[in-house]
Amino acid sequence: MELDDLKAGWVELDRRVAALELIAPSRGAAAGVHAELRPLAWGQALQMMFGVLVAMVTGFFWVDHRDAAGLLVAGLLLHGYGIAMIVTAARNLVLVARTSEAQPVLALQQRVAALRAWRIREGRWFGVLGCFIWVPMIIGAFGLLGIDLVTACPWFVALNLLVSCAFLGAYVTVSRLVKVPEGRAVRRAQERLDEVARFAGGNAV
């Protein structure tokens, strides 16, 4: 009977040690990944604050220029851009926060992969918007000076839109050559997770 109790005790001890070996890497991985993503989190917090400022200023702008179609449209586009900055930054912060939880390495890899996929899509959206958003910025700047650029110089606005199309073509070409489209912080986090997974796999063998 004592021998059976001893064997049962060893089995239980082995089970607990194995559980600790699984928990320790995942906790360390979560801490390491969150540390790598901290610069991204700070940047997104700043983006959110800037987006709030842009949305507020442009909101007042288009409300004050409802009688001028060109200025109204420019103000609405800039207002929407500010809101997009807020929404995307909020989603990034939520995805980053989810990586701080202690969980199996595989689950962390899936969450970092979700963040990576979102960052790539977000980067493409803002890349395309960035090729054109400077046009309403110019229109809005002249609007603050009391000049309706769309009405006064429609050819100038059209020329800027053509230039924006050229920027779009250049952006599409360059974006295909970029090796880290999701950002360096996300790439480093993924590399850290890969190292932890290889370490855990080596120990398992």
Q: If you had to describe this structure to a student in words, what would you say it looks like?
A:
This protein is an all-alpha fold and 205 residues long. It has one domain. It has helices spanning 2-64, 69-98, 105-132, 134-144, 149-152, 154-175, 184-204. It is elongated. The model is unreliable at 16-26 and 199-205 (pLDDT under 50).
Task: Give the arrangement of secondary structure elements.
Blueprint: H1 2-64, H2 69-98, H3 105-132, H4 134-144, H5 149-152, H6 154-175, H7 184-204
Helix pairs in contact: 1-2, 1-7, 2-3, 2-4, 3-6, 3-7
How confident is the prediction overall: mean pLDDT? 78
| SSE string, helices as H and strands as E | HHHHHHH
Query: What is the beta-strand fraction?
Result: under 5%
Structural class: mainly alpha
Q: Report the helical percentage.
A: over 70%
Q: What is the assembly state of the chains in this entry?
A: single chain
Low-pLDDT residue spans: 16-26, 199-205
For the secondary structure, the number of strands is: 0
Alpha-carbon Rg, integer: 26 Å
